[in-house]
Amino acid sequence: MNHQNTWWKQGFFYQLYPRSFMDSNHDGIGDIRGIISKIDYLKQLGIKAIWLNPVYQSPNDDMGYDISNYNEVMTEFGTKEDLKELIDLLHQNGIKLVMDLVVNHTSDEHQWFIESRKSKDNPYRDFYIWRDNHNNQPPNNWSSFFTPSAWKLDTLTNSWYLHLFSEKQPDLNWENESMRRAIYAMINRWFDFGVDGFRMDVITLIAKNPKLPDGNRFFNDHGYSMAFENYALQPKMYDYLQELKENTARPHTMYLGEATFANQSNAHTLIGDDKPMDLIFQFDLMDVDSGKHKFDVIPIDYNRFKRTLFDWQKAIPWNTLFLCNHDQARSVSRFGNTSNESLWNRSAKMLGVAIHLMKGTSFIYQGEEIGMTNSRFEDPKELKDIESINYYKLSQEQGHEAIAWEGILKKARDHARTPIQWNGLDYAGFSTVEPWMKVNQNYHEINVQKQQNDPNSILNFYRKLIQLKTNSVTLTYGDVIEIETNIKSLLIYKRVLENEEYLIICNLSNEIHRLDFSLKGYQLVLSNMLHSGYELESYVAYVYRKVS
Ligand code: ISL
Ligand code: CA
Fold it and tell me: Measuring CA to CA, which residue among 203, 119, 117, 216 is closest to residue 164?
């Protein structure tokens, strides 16, 4: 492996959700010029790459994941010239840009779908997955991620189309070669434009079992089945991605697959030199607080948390490391402790150490570097995200809305999507007018300006953590060695490369523990506490380096 050329393994990624990052033109919506105005901030943070959530034209049924034109920038976000300028400026500052590639589905307002609906013999008909209508019953029992059934009857031709996500996100038919060629051409245009790679949205779902058989497990309340055995990691998916790579990949570009339903036994089929992807996101850690479903929230089992981390380290040679993204609740609210300022500060820092000093590419989700927390939504009307809106509506129909609301307060995707809190001014300095989404109430206490020059802030801790890992070959490429302990809330591991060794000790819990081995020969290099020692207070994190 040539360590020097694998830019996606060296240095941190910052996930940037443009709608909520910075508004430059006073319409309450974040935009590309807003990002440009904050390049210094990103540079100071020390990140080496950005994953930018979708900026393509979209009616925003699913906030940009429903694309109506792959070749144009969403009007509210700016122009293609703005995007080009952003890419150039990032490159001048040593930062790469990875865009989102959403090709499992398009918007129903995409020209391809507008044509496809028109008639059964339209040249674009087969760009999507259609079935004739018999008895007004959907062609199979598949459920969608956002609605009970994955099928919608389109009256124009009296046929059903498949949508694994919202009704406004019809699934593309990857069996159609013209469709595939059009996607590859689109990817090549963006590589020519200057992007450095793509995060491939639900890429493991693009191939469907052509027979579209019923699922027989994981039924939702409406009797539809989460039939992923028929559309996740299908044999054809490998062929399509191989073809995609052959037709698009360039020497320094990268593909990061959102590997929905990947597990420890199949993940090795997805990443590597001769495999379809360079990096994958898997979501096992995002499930450690899920009971029967995402919104059925259970307390974190620290053993499970640790096993998930360490077992994935063994399962594949290179992981991605993250505790949040635009689909998740805020990490400090979920895995840390926000009951008072000092625990909030300490646990946010600890979580950064615990996850990012593992082996793999680190991803910080915007706002995580200042410890942004879940929002206190007061009314379902404040929700913007289709997932929780639909979930709440369905639960109302069944009279479970009080329970649903509890789950939403803990896990709604909207928690991650509130505007970045830049300062204590109106709308947290994100905009001068009311933003598209309510700013978190705590912006006076939590904001960038307040943390900028405070040596104890989460922000300055993140800067140090990023530097420490980015500048260390051992913390980047060294082996991970788990140090077993009987105390289940202690996460302890070493990073070892040749003669160098780091020891990482994190207390994941609110309990005080004592270390039962010697720290002789170790020197403290980073901590969220002023003192080090054998007494491990709640949420402490210590990073030691072996000196003798
Ligand atoms: O968000 C989820 C659960 O709350 C996930 O199941 C999510 O739907 C899944 O990981 C796929 O996510 C991606 O594709 C979706 C889009 O809504 C998400 O924002 C995106 O990250 C459809 O494009
Ligand atoms: Ca704007």
Answer: 203
